[in-house]
Amino acid sequence: FVNIKEGDGTLLDHMLIIADTDHGNARLHALDDMPAFTAGRAGGKLKTGLHLDMKATPLARLAFTALRTMGVDVQKFGGGTNQTSDAVSEILV
Fold first, then answer.
1. Which of 4, 63, 77, 92 qualifies as a FRET site for 71, CA 20 to 30 Å off?
2. Is 69 a residue whose pLDDT tops 90?
């Protein structure tokens, strides 16, 4: 992706990939400390090279941030205690 030219940058500059797991502690199927990974700059809208400890924040915040960043007009995302309307501002440009 980094060698594929796309407009004024590379394909990776213009896309966003998110990878995560559905639980933190696999043995307990806990919702705490759930790791997530992002790649790409979403057209220059996101910062890269960061490590964030989101503590007890719902992973849905990352999905909500991605949706809003990519132009999807949603007011909230997730359900129950994992519902959010709060973006991960630390990664926004």
1. 4
2. yes
